[in-house]
Design goal:
Strand content: 35-45%
Number of domains: 1
Structural class: alpha+beta
Low-confidence stretches: 1-6, 246-274
Number of helices: 6
Helix content: 10-25%
Radius of gyration: 20 Å
Oligomer: single chain
Number of strands: 13
């Protein structure tokens, strides 16, 4: 699975996040990610994992992501960074001749401001699942819970509508780019400006808040407990070990302790085929 030197799945690891390779406005906490054979994608929501119950779904709160605002990613080789930037700008609705604009760059670095965190309470997730009957025999779900597939529930996403990009030469000196020229190139509703703290950082801003990172928990069937019932096992997912893309071309990412690759939004019937 993938190439171990590909850092596209872990460049947000220092921010304790997994990567959304194609940023999107559609991703929400409590969605289920499924991986089965060659098909990977969002297959449903937490309430579809259980039989109907009176308990409400876990609450989702949102607020400023103070630990992410003002933070920077690791510096990425230009070949890798350009691909990530292209995905981000495409999701924002802009176009850019990336090769020409960053042709003198050896590395680029991403920075984040005005980031919002959308979080589901993980204790409430546990309470919700403990109070309900898991649909163990569901023809699609059982392939993830018992078989070779993997099932994840998203507990948190972080969103932003703008991102800063700093370009570096081989000697790590910053490169000043012509913001007005870039603005003419991007087109669409994408805005281009300079960061107030660093004139060498170009800030791209789109019209919508897009999810670019997430936190998840892996779910699977465990042994039968003292009551004879199958237990649901929870495993926290380490930052930088899972990545996925929604839409766009097929993606190849690295296999860091079981990272998912080429994960796209697909039809549930496809994910359920044996």
């Amino acid at each position: 699975m993938g190439i171990c030197t590909d850092k596209s799945v872990n460049y947000l690891k220092s921010l304790n996040l997994n990567v959304v390779l194609h940023p999107t406005a559609d991703l929400k906490p409590l969605e289920l990610l499924g991986e089965f054979k060659d098909a990977r994608g969002i297959i449903g929501t937490l309430d579809q994992l259980t039989e109907p119950q009176a308990r409400a779904l876990p609450s989702i709160t949102q607020g400023v992501a103070a630990n992410i605002n003002g933070q920077r990613s690791s510096k990425l080789p230009i070949e890798l960074g350009i691909g990530i930037l292209g995905n981000i700008l495409g999701a924002m609705g802009g176009k850019l001749n990336l090769s020409a604009t960053y042709e003198k760059s050896e590395k680029i670095e991403f920075s984040y401001t005005d980031v919002t965190r959308h979080r589901a309470n993980t204790i409430e997730i546990g309470d919700y699942l403990a109070a309900a009957r898991v649909r163990w025999s569901h023809p699609i779900l059982k392939k993830y819970l018992f078989g070779p597939g993997k099932l994840y529930v998203i507990t948190e996403i972080v969103t932003a509508r703008k991102i800063g990009v700093t370009a570096y030469r081989a000697d790590n000196s910053r490169i000043a780019l012509d913001v007005p020229v870039i603005q003419e190139l991007v087109g669409g509703s994408l805005k281009v400006g300079s960061d107030a703290a660093s004139t060498n950082t170009v800030v791209y801003e789109g019209p919508d808040d897009l999810a670019f990172g997430f936190v998840a928990i892996e779910l699977s069937a465990g042994d039968r407990g003292d009551d004879g019932e199958i237990d649901l096992v929870f495993r926290p997912v380490k930052a930088g070990t899972v990545s996925f893309g929604i839409g766009g071309p097929a993606l190849v990412t690295a296999d860091f302790d079981g990272a998912m690759q080429r994960l796209e939004r697909v039809d549930g019937e496809v994910l359920g085929k044996a």
